[in-house]
């Protein structure tokens, strides 16, 4: 379901590094070559390129990219070149250090906790303290106030069972618990936190399906009618990231281009983090939700090398 | 600081397996050989022996030990032969499934969360869901009631920064927060949970030291004077496991042999889990706290192969 296109015959990491080195040298930078190489390599190939580049030239590839490129193009290429756990740790840190701490800033934490594997979340937490000398939890406690804090702590602290194990009795009783919390407008009840933060994703999808069958509406619609407005928005992101991440990321892309100006950081994040995972599904969902093409949206709101790079990750032949 | 004695020249895993196989064969079992081999190998050597045994004889070493041995001796040898994360996941599960859920049963969870490395805790959580098809957190929620539940969830959910990073201002302000919670008998306040569950161990030791200097008593002594009796006992274990695990394990050994009868499960757990870590310090601390020798206590309260095995782990020449 990825949009990333890797050539059938991939050059060796050494060949890729030599071409990158050539692209950096001389007057100006050959951005086209950089897009062509990095934009067509998957995470493990990019890792080999990073390692080989450092061995060959005794400098970090990311440092070199930083000095050669600029603007949104630079941000996107660098984010793409990081090891995914390191990338997400940096995104999480930026979100927690942003001045405003609304749902929009913090949804990246939910994406890491709910739209990635439990193992990836652990790797991000490990990368976080290697990079920032403190734990992700410590930064959440010091940066986010209640009631978001307890949900975010629960979400990033969980290590969910990572296999399909669904108990239909649990689904019905926990759908009832969630319904009761929504009805009494107690979205921040401990039981809501435990259910959403601890149950495995398959169990939760079953619980949400049971909720819809029994109470008539998707649970996120009922949540949006009650309680603290910031919390309910966050919970909607939680439910979408668990139930159908493609909906969430289609919305991230849409919100980033809607209205005047573009939120390049969010647009970059959505495409860079999902190009290797489910961007084909995001594209389909986008078309369904907004009756227009995601690719046209990106083409219309971006330009230059930044546009070329995002479109490459979206699978376009540039 | 381990008491485990590994010979200078260690036989190959194949040689060890052949000797173990011989010990199992024929009439009766050669327990002495089993103690001699497994009781003198460290965790990575035992892992190689397990793997090699399976390859050579197409059966699990632990299954064979189970069928050959019996009683407390069997429990101790098997616990020692498991991969440490698997061993601790099983200990945690047994604690959560025990009928009574007092501090005594649950302290094994605190040991895993506070007297081991953050990385080990993650491995235990991973082993837990591989073994039991659910997460450790789910079992805590379903087995333990408040106020212990929120502390245990916080403790096992944390992924502490694993390096020495101490901020003296944080130490003083958090010592003050803890003192306020103790003074107002609100041990289950969220701030107490966050401080004890999230801060790195070096930071917490500095906070506890500041507390003692400023308020005159070790923090665990002040805690024992206030609040819910089960919670304060658990918090004392938390503080000892963070500050001086040797005190905690000396007490586990002492409690296991004190009074009529012996609590073999606790005695086994203390020796098996610490023989490779800090049993020398536990022994010294035991002598200081109880004015008697830990080894004499074990010799006096155990017998047969069980005694021989524990004493081997304690470094005795049997």
TrEMBL record, chains A, B:
Record GO terms (molecular function): calcium ion binding; calcium-dependent phospholipid binding; phosphatidylserine binding
Bilayer-crossing regions: none
Gene3D superfamilies to which the protein is assigned, alphabetical: Annexin (1.10.220.10)
A UniProt-annotated Pfam family: Annexin
Keywords: Annexin, Calcium, Calcium/phospholipid-binding, Metal-binding, Repeat
Gene Ontology cellular-component terms listed: cytoplasm; plasma membrane
SMART domains given in the database record: ANX
InterPro entries to which the protein is assigned, alphabetical: Annexin (IPR001464), Annexin_repeat (IPR018502), Annexin_repeat_CS (IPR018252), Annexin_sf (IPR037104), AnnexinD_plant (IPR009118)
Family: Belongs to the annexin family.
Written domain comment of the UniProt record: A pair of annexin repeats may form one binding site for calcium and phospholipid.
Name under which the protein is recorded: Annexin
Organism the protein comes from: Quillaja saponaria (Soap bark tree)
Lineage: Eukaryota, Viridiplantae, Streptophyta, Embryophyta, Tracheophyta
């Amino acid at each position: 379901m990825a949009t990333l296109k890797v050539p059938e015959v991939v050059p060796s990491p050494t060949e890729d590094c030599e071409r990158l080195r050539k692209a950096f040298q001389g007057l100006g930078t050959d951005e086209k070559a950089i897009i062509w190489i990095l934009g067509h390599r998957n995470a493990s190939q990019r890792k080999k390129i990073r390692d080989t580049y450092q061995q060959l030239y005794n400098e970090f590839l990311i440092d070199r990219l930083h000095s050669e490129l600029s603007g949104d193009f630079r941000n996107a290429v660098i984010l793409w070149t990081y090891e995914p756990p390191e990338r997400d740790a940096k995104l999480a840190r930026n979100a927690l250090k942003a001045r405003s701490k609304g749902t929009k800033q913090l949804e990246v934490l939910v994406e890491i906790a709910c739209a990635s594997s439990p193992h990836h979340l652990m790797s991000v937490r490990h990368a976080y303290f290697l990079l920032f000398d403190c734990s992700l939890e410590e930064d959440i406690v010091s940066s986010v106030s209640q009631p978001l804090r307890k949900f975010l702590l629960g979400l990033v602290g969980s290590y969910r069972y990572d296999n399909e194990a669904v108990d239909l009795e649990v689904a019905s009783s926990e759908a009832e618990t969630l319904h009761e919390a929504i009805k009494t407008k107690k979205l921040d009840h401990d039981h809501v936190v435990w259910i959403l933060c601890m149950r495995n994703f398959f169990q939760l999808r079953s619980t949400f399906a049971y909720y819809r069958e029994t109470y008539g509406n998707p649970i996120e619609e009922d949540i949006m009618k009650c309680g603290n407005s910031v919390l309910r928005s966050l919970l909607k992101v939680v439910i979408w990231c668990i139930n159908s991440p493609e909906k969430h990321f289609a919305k991230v892309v849409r919100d980033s281009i809607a209205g005047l100006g573009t939120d390049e950081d969010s647009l970059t994040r959505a495409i860079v983090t999902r190009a290797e995972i489910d961007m084909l599904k995001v594209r389909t969902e986008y078309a369904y939700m907004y009756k227009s093409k995601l690719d046209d949206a990106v083409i219309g709101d971006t330009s230059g090398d930044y546009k070329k790079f995002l479109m490459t990750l979206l699978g376009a032949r540039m």
